[in-house]
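Risk register update: the risk of archive-format incompatibility is retired. Evidence:
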Amino acid sequence: MVGQDSRSRAGAGVRIAGPVGTNKRYPYLAAQRAEENELRKARKAGPLQSLTDIQIRSHTVPITHAPRTPAMWGHAWVRFGDVDVRCVVRILRWTPDAVGVAVPVDEEWLRCWIWQGAVQRLENRTDAWI
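Archived output:
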């Protein structure tokens, strides 16, 4: 069978595998790991920034708490020192203008308040990485 490529030798009905290094079971895993590395680097730039009580208007507007289960997820911009990172966050609470989120960094959940416009709601945690 000299001169024939692997597709012709494979025969009809046999599926040829995708590129080497792709993960068919967990297609989001590479993007998730890249985000985790980006968060680790950003954390070295300074503490996680949060809105102030005045910006949140915590004393004048109601704060709605998200149910514990099922978890609510979002894709949001957060800031460590002077470094901005877009990452998956867990939505914990919100006001008309702001959202309280938790950011996973190295097995630790860091909490902050961010503007509502900085968050996009996700149906599933992995939706941002696919």
